[in-house]
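Field reference: "sequence" (input) and "structure" (output). Example, Peroxisomal biogenesis factor 11:
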Amino acid sequence: MTKSFDVSDVALGAFASVPPSEKLDHLVRLLSTWGGSDKFFMLVQAILKILDPFLRFRAGAQLRMGLSKSAASPAAESCRKFAGIIGDSRTSWRIWGLLPIFQWLISLERTPQPTRRHLQIERLQGWSMLGYYPFEHACYLLSHGIISSPRFKSKSLSMWSCRFWLAYVALQLFHLREDRTLLLAREHALRKAKGTGSLEKGRADLRRKWDAFWNELVENAANLPIAIDASLEQGLFKNELWTTVFGLIAAIAAFRGAWKATALPSPVSVTDDETTEEKTTTET
């Protein structure tokens, strides 16, 4: 028998030949979360902002070499506008940002922390965010003409919101210092431990935690000069390119952290020690 040929199957069922993609599944998981989608657009925005000066420089170079009649770069202007739209959208998405902060602070008082310092640092971080969001929301609404105030200016509100953000970033660096102490203690304990079935699992978990530690350190070290620059009336850098570069570094680290956080757990391999333990238990 010859297989019937249906044109509709070929046209409408074209995706039958497309294999499932783990990367696509992973990206959908990432973008399905509020934080994941924010990190994704943060990266896109940072790339657009770094492309803007590069494209303008290229247009100027082409003019000097006689390859172009104008120093204007439509592509650079498009990148700048798109980055602005994304930045505006990300700010509007954070309009309910206080809700998870309330949730975090409530949970913090009911969840045991590794040390007293961890607890105090996270308390201060929570309160700094309680200061950050109202100023950011007020600045956003004021700058778009949704509210009006003859007393407050959007630039002043923006600086105060960034000062609270600066406090959060600085506290996070202290938090990471405390995390490093705990990781070193854990590493020392694993080195002294004898061969057991869970030893390799503990080492793998430690490697993941060290990876997350260094990733967070890079992200917050890059955010620190940006926060300082935005907190000062005259700024920290005369050249805006510095904040753009630091923003790209922070965005890459943030996206990498979110990508790893939404990854499916890798299958646990059975070690020789675990096999031996299982055999011993069975024989007993």
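Residues 26-60+71-262 form one domain.
Residues 269-284 have pLDDT under 50 and may be disordered.
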